[in-house]
Amino acid sequence: MKRxxxxxxxxxxxxxxxxxxxxxxxxxxxADIKAEVxxxxxxxxxxxx
Length: 49
What we know:
Elements: H1 3-16, H2 31-48
């Protein structure tokens, strides 16, 4: 394999690796979303029942 092909393969492999965990949102960032989901779920249950 030519050197340039090896470098291109290595760069392609790096682009598909997952991002480090520090880039994921903290659990606290999802608190508002979880509260809204719970609220809408309760509303939906009341509407069905």
